[in-house]
Design brief:
Largest sheet: 5 strands, antiparallel
Strand content: 35-45%
Number of strands: 40
Helix content: under 10%
Strand order of the largest sheet: 19-18-17-16-36
Radius of gyration: 21 Å
Low-confidence stretches: 3-21
Structural class: mainly beta
Mean pLDDT: 92
Distance between the termini: 44 Å
Number of helices: 7
């Protein structure tokens, strides 16, 4: 995280003009109407403990396998945040039709600790998603018992990483058929080691360089839901410990193997290239992802992966601190990237914002990936520290105009300013377009209903279809009449910040009635499906 920035020129110093709406609002706030009542508690004490300003996250999963997406919110609470400390994390069951019920108690998830975020995956191969929760202190793995309840199996599973963990992701990175786990750890903070810090001479929350970084952890699944720490054996410990905030797992080198990309705060980002033998090599610098276009590290928070240019390659967006601008790394092929934030049109609009969670998705169902960021400063007195800053900020939506050229929309529907952190996307009401869930630090979480028209198709890779093994699957869709050119979607694990979107591939089809799907499986193998009807949510065998 930063408190000052390099000059980007007069054109960027002014706030970018926001495009007038070409249609009605993209989203509307349905939080109250749908009955979701989660409030995040950051435990703010006036001491400005660093974790207070960085939570929380949201996990989308179908925990009861009834065909719709449920929502888990990770809460903080009073520090020091030990497991006996009260927490108000909540699991909300989706009852369909825009109705949700708080089932935290009956699910056995009235848990303590100071949570930052989480993820989900089927760790024991029994067909239902389990929960992994990142925290200040010991993380926790909660096994889904298949009867609507969860049980803590952290000790038996061996994944109780006791650093301060921000984000995590499950994927079968060694292609042996089970879910492995990568955990992005942040800094070595405890209440006992708290420091008083100042920004521009004014007391504020500390930056990560005030504390030592904590090494990320990589756990390999033994096949029975227990894990071994393979951080060193996999070659990940050869990279120095840096303050990680976001992680995504996807095939970023076009070889059919899932790679790991880590967003590091104020330090070079990492790209761990999968060698296919259970080991990785760090290639962030060579790949062009380690630094921004100015050649310096940036305060990277969240990650989104997707083919924003429509050229068949996976591109990346990373969110950053205010006065740095968010980055779009365009994939040149073969695991090489170029920073295209300015040509893409996202730099100017993101310059005054501090962004955490991020989503790339076809939100208007026109065949390309739009961009949303969850914004909010880390300093509760930001306006005193920098005259152009503010603690709450407006979340932002950029429309993809085609070929990866973006324009910020004034019709997003995100009217109020918030201190947003976690962000996830899912078709929560089953009508084909996507909803967005924002977690607001110290405030009420918000759900925005998508209002897109047009045909669509969704491919569901929930736990019952071995989601972890599907990470890296590539689907090329062609529809006529419909959006021009094939659309590529890859299943990505992790992404955003401290959060997890629905494990599904979503395509906007315009006016098409059917489509052809060409599927490339992780590790090789191809399948083709012809004349697949539109407006369907499918599970590929």
């Amino acid at each position: 995280m930063r408190t000052a920035a390099r000059s980007l020129g007069a054109a960027v110093l002014a706030l970018a003009l926001v495009a007038p709406p070409a249609h009605g609002a993209w989203f509307r706030d349905v939080t109250a109407a749908w009955g979701l009542g989660f409030r995040h508690h950051n435990g703010s004490s006036g001491r400005r403990y660093m974790p207070e300003t960085l939570g929380g996250g949201v996990v989308v999963l179908d925990y009861d396998l009834d065909g719709d997406w449920d929502v888990f919110f990770a809460d903080g609470g009073p520090l020091p945040g030990d497991p006996g400390t009260a927490s108000r994390s909540q699991l909300w069951r989706n009852d369909g039709g825009g109705r949700f019920a708080d089932v935290t108690g009956r699910a056995g998830l009235e848990i303590g600790g100071y949570l930052n975020g989480g993820t989900a995956g089927d760790v024991d191969g029994d067909g239902d998603p389990d929960l992994y929760l990142t925290a200040l202190g010991a993380n926790a793995l909660w096994r889904n018992q298949g009867d609507g309840s969860f049980v803590d199996v952290t000790a038996v599973a061996g994944v109780g990483d006791e650093g301060w963990s921000a984000s995590a992701a499950f994927a079968d990175v060694d292609l042996d058929g089970d879910a492995d786990l990568y955990v992005a750890d942040y800094v070595d903070f405890t209440v006992a080691t708290h420091k008083e810090c100042r920004s521009n001479g004014i007391e504020g929350y500390c930056m990560p360089d005030a504390y030592g970084a904590v090494r990320d952890r990589f756990y390999v699944n033994r096949g029975d839901g227990t894990f071994r720490d393979a951080t060193e054996a996999a070659g990940l410990a050869t990279a120095r410990a840096l303050p990680g905030l976001g992680v995504a797992i996807a095939d970023l080198t076009d070889d059919g193997l899932p790679d790991i990309v880590v967003a590091n705060d104020s330090q070079p980002n990492y790209l761990f290239r999968n060698r296919g033998d259970g080991t990785f090599v760090e290639t962030g610098l060579v790949a062009g992802l380690a630094y921004g276009e100015g050649g310096e590290p940036e305060a990277s928070m969240g990650i989104a992966v997707g083919d924003v240019e429509g050229d068949g390659d996976q591109d990346l967006v990373m969110t950053h601190f205010e006065l740095e601008t968010n980055a779009l790394y365009a994939h040149l092929g073969g695991g090489l990237f170029r920073d295209m934030r300015f040509p893409a049109g996202i730099a100017e609009g993101s310059y005054p914002s501090l962004s955490f969670g991020v989503v790339l998705a076809d939100l208007d169902q026109d065949g390309d990936l739009d961009l949303v960021t969850a914004n909010g400063h880390i300093q509760d007195n930001a306006a005193r520290i920098h005259e152009r800053s503010s603690f709450p900020q407006r979340n932002q939506l950029w429309e993809n105009l085609g070929a990866g050229k973006f324009e910020e929309s004034a019709a997003s529907g995100f009217e109020a300013v918030r201190v947003s952190r976690g962000l996830a996307a899912a078709d929560l009401d089953g009508d084909g377009d996507l909803e967005l869930v924002f977690v607001n630090n110290g405030g009420v979480a918000e759900v925005y209903e998508g209002l897109a028209a047009g045909a669509w198709m969704q491919l569901d890779f929930g736990a019952a279809t071995r989601e972890a093994g599907a990470v890296g699957i590539r689907v090329d869709l062609a529809a006529a009449p419909g959006p021009p050119g094939p659309q590529r979607r890859d299943l990505v694990a992790g992404g955003s910040y401290g959060s997890r979107s629905a494990p599904a591939l979503h395509f906007g089809l315009g006016g098409a009635a059917a489509a052809r799907l060409d599927v490339r499986l992780p590790g090789g193998g191809r399948r083709t499906y012809r004349d697949v009807p539109a407006r369907r949510r499918l599970r590929l065998p």
